[in-house]
Give the backbone structure.
Amino acid sequence: MRSTLYPRPTSRSASGSSPRRSARRERAAEARYPTCGVRGCANDRFLQTDHVVALADGGLTEDGNLWRLCTFHHDKKTYAGWKVVGTTHNWNLVPPDNDPDPP
């Protein structure tokens, strides 16, 4: 018997963008971001491809909405309220106003 932890997406968004990342998109993100996408971070290990605008917030799985972050910065964005600023592929990550210890 085969079990699945997560249901496989079966539909596409209105724009035709699949919610799942393709191998081509992963390779493009890897080429564009050989190190963490946050300015000043040179980490090139354990990078995670991330949606700049989360799917839950209306973001799409497309090249213009994907970047790669190190585990530290991915956790800050996902769990600590850090925000993405800038323009497409010229993004940066900034801490919330009340963060006592920005990097």
Observations:
- Residues 23-94 form one domain.
- The first strand starts at residue 48 and ends at 51.
- Residues 1-17 have pLDDT under 50 and may be disordered.
